[in-house]
Amino acid sequence: MNVHNSEIIKKVKQWMSYGNEDLNLARHGLTLAEKAPFRLIAYHAKQCAEKYIKAYLVFHEIDFPFTHNISHLLELWPGTGWDDKLLDAEELTTFAVSTRYPGEEEPVTESEAKHAIEIAGIVREIIQSALIKKDISL
């Protein structure tokens, strides 16, 4: 393995590690006895999905802009396309900003937070599987 490849793999693993931390935090949020912060749980689940998608783009040396728009990140993939289940991650984009700042948005429900975690877990699983086939895992 050359130095260039080892640097890319290091970055991919960092993105994956950060994504894992986000998903762990989201899952932990559901265990809080009272007043679980569903908006933050959904936000961190979205962050997990985003970071895993970015890890995959880094592996393929595809530049991406500073964005939290999952649809835009998925559009950057030049191959035959993503697994259809990854497209569900597009709905997580709504949790990128609106959940972090007060405004007129509806509160995130427990059901929505759990669904966000489920989607993030699927994204992580699909991308981990794809990277394992390339001999990359955490």
Task: Write structural notes for this entry.
This protein has 5 helices and no strands. The chain has 138 residues and is mainly alpha-helical. It has a single domain, classed as Nucleotidyltransferases  domain 2 (Four Helix Bundle (Hemerythrin (Met), subunit A), Up-down Bundle). Helix 1 (3-29) runs antiparallel to helix 2 and helix 1 runs antiparallel to helix 5 (110-132). The longest helix has 27 residues, at 3-29.
CATH topology: Four Helix Bundle (Hemerythrin (Met), subunit A)
Helix and strand succession? HHHHH
In angstroms, what separates the terminal alpha carbons?
17 Å
Overall geometry:
globular
Short description:
This protein is mainly alpha-helical and 138 residues long. The chain is built from 5 helices and no strands. It has helices at 3-29, 38-59, 70-75, 84-87, 110-132.
List the helices and strands and how they pair.
Blueprint: H1 3-29, H2 38-59, H3 70-75, H4 84-87, H5 110-132
Label this structure with key terms.
5 helices, 59% helix, single chain, Four Helix Bundle (Hemerythrin (Met), subunit A), mainly alpha, 138 residues
